[in-house]
Every structure is written in structure tokens, then in C-alpha cells.
Design brief:
It is an enzyme of class 6 (ligase). The structure is a single chain. This protein has 312 residues and is an alpha/beta fold. It is built from 14 helices and 13 strands. Helix 1 packs across helix 2 and helix 12 runs antiparallel to helix 14.
């Protein structure tokens, strides 16, 4: 059962590995989010490869791909689409926006205003759009990969909690080391490997792999371990708002997908512990006193993992 999922994941990882150097964990977590039906927020400084990761993933999947470049003057209708009057036919017609696709790249999402950012909320949460009292289902699979630069503050709008909570994972690429950066120069010396990527999985196949991943066995003890981790974020004395039940469900499904990618039909505590920082840190809001003491959500999640007993 999981052998098919693992084989397909290896093909996609090999595809992305032709472009990105030394980012095996990030690529694996990205695929886990795809197979668990979650959205991804890639947050890092410019020039690291955030957009390249999204384009390499989209190129590996035979799905409808759309890119939205977020800017301060972008309007919600530029994302969702509009009803316009066609003078030739004498009727109103709907012009679909770029969100009506299977893989959507929201590039530099924090450069758009909160009003425009909110245009993604219904689609990401419910896989549908409501335009002029008409509900439009989004195609399946549906995946949003958003990128943002956390360093630059001028001309940006921080994502609200409701928007952040709809992202299953928040990933960081980080700088490559010396050998990896030299390897990158060699790969791009004569051609662009991104242009040579061929699709290795179709939309219907992704839906099938998602269904297979949900059949991965999770022991009741590990299910309770996941719940206790999320509960601990809400009970931490320095946390104003802990992770939501959506985070619990996301971690649960993502751990199944991660185990399937690794060729196992059961989840281990390692998958849950690995996912916790990526699935919970962006959902935790610290109290003002904790922020003044320069505490970070990543540090809080680390303390939570150390405080919750690991089942053996």
C-alpha cells in the first residue's frame, strides 16, 4: 500500500533535488503537506530558493499551476475572479481568478493588504469560493504555497492569526553551506534545471496517494501523544493563545503522510516530534511579557516537547 506512495514521493524528491541542493528535510516535509492536503508557508530571507521550491514542486505535478505576485495594490477580485458584463452576449460572465487552480503560488504574500490576504481564507479552509452569492468548488487537489520575507518590514502587512492557522507547515530553507553553494553553481552553469523538470504525478494520482496515506496506522498512544503536545501549548504559562484543533488534525494527518513517504505503514513518535516545530510554532501567540524577554515560539515548542512524555 505505502510502497506506491513512497515510490512516487522519491520521484518527486529526485525532481526537486535537481534544482535545490541540500534541502532534503524541507522537500520531504513539503511532500508530507501535499499528501495530507495541507498548505505551506515558506518563510526566509530573499534569494534562498523559496519560489524555486514552489515552482519545482509544481513542475513535478501534472496539475494546473497559477502564480500570484502579491503587491500592495492587489485587489481581492484579482485573486478570486469577477463577474463582468459581456456587451456582445448581453449577459454577465464569470472570469476566473488565479486561485481557481490546483497548485497556487502566493509569492510574497505579506506584501498585500489584509483585505486582499483574506481572499484566500475561504479557499484554503473550505476548498471553495463564494462570489456574488454563488459558491464555486475549487479543483482537487488544491494546494497553496505562500512565500514571505520575515526580515523586511517596510511595505509589508503581517499575516493575521486566522490566515496563519490555515497553513499546515511553516518551513525555513536556510543558507546552503560552502559545498552546497558550489554545487548549485555547477548545476546552473550551462542550463536551468528548473526548465527541464517533467511531471511525475498527476492530480488524480495525488488524490489516490492522499487516501492511501490516511490508511497508515496510528497507535492510540501516539494519537494521545499528539493531542497532549497541542494541549500543552495552550497551558504554557507564557502563551497567550495556543495551537488550534486544526493544528492537531494537521499534525495527525501529516505524520501519517510522513510515515508513508518513508515506506512505513505505521507512525512512530519521531514523525510527531519532527513535525511539531513546523506545525505549531506559527500558531502560538506569546504573552507580551514573554516577548519582552525575547522568548520565541520555537523555544516554547521545544520546551513543550521536552515536558510531554514520549510513549515507548
Amino acid at each position: 500500500m505505502v510502497a506506491r506512495v513512497s515510490d512516487a514521493a522519491n520521484k518527486v524528491k529526485e525532481n526537486i533535488g535537481r534544482v535545490l541542493v541540500g534541502k532534503e528535510e524541507v522537500v520531504e516535509l513539503t511532500l508530507a503537506a501535499v499528501l495530507s492536503g495541507g498548505h505551506i508557508l515558506v518563510e526566509d530571507v530573499p534569494g534562498i530558493g523559496k519560489t524555486t521550491l514552489a515552482r519545482a514542486l509544481a513542475g513535478s505535478l501534472d496539475c494546473v499551476f497559477r502564480r500570484i505576485q502579491f503587491t500592495p495594490d492587489l485587489m481581492p477580485s484579482d485573486i478570486t475572479g469577477i463577474n463582468y458584463y459581456n456587451q456582445k452576449s448581453g449577459e454577465f460572465e464569470f472570469r476566473a481568478g488565479p486561485i481557481i487552480a490546483q497548485v497556487v503560488l502566493a509569492d510574497e504574500i505579506n506584501r498585500a493588504t489584509p483585505r486582499t490576504q483574506s481572499a484566500l481564507l475561504e479557499g484554503m479552509g473550505e476548498r471553495q469560493l463564494t462570489i456574488d452569492e454563488v459558491t464555486i468548488p475549487l479543483p482537487a487537489p488544491f494546494l497553496v504555497i505562500a512565500t514571505q520575507n520575515p526580515i523586511e518590514l517596510e511595505g509589508t502587512f503581517p499575516l493575521p492569526e486566522a490566515q496563519l492557522d490555515r497553513f499546515l507547515l511553516r518551513l525555513h530553507l536556510g543558507y546552503p553551506d560552502e559545498e552546497q553553494e558550489e554545487e548549485m553553481l555547477l548545476r546552473f552553469e550551462t542550463s536551468d534545471p528548473l526548465a527541464q523538470i517533467e511531471p511525475v504525478a498527476s492530480g488524480p494520482e495525488i488524490l489516490e496517494y492522499q487516501a492511501l496515506a490516511r490508511q497508515v496506522y496510528v497507535d492510540p498512544v501516539l494519537r494521545n501523544y499528539t493531542v497532549r503536545i497541542v494541549q500543552a501549548t495552550r497551558q504554557h504559562p507564557e502563551v497567550e493563545l495556543g495551537a488550534s484543533p486544526r493544528a492537531t488534525m494537521g499534525m495527525y494527518r501529516c505524520s501519517q503522510a510522513l510515515a508513508a513517504i518513508r515506506g512505513r505503514e505505521y507512525v512512530t513518535p519521531d514523525e510527531i516530534k519532527q513535525l511539531a516545530p513546523y506545525a505549531l510554532s506559527h500558531r502560538v501567540i506569546l504573552k507580551s511579557q514573554a516577548r519582552l524577554r525575547e522568548r520565541t515560539p520555537d523555544g516554547i515548542i521545544k520546551e513543550v516537547l521536552e515536558s510531554v512524555t514520549v510513549p515507548v
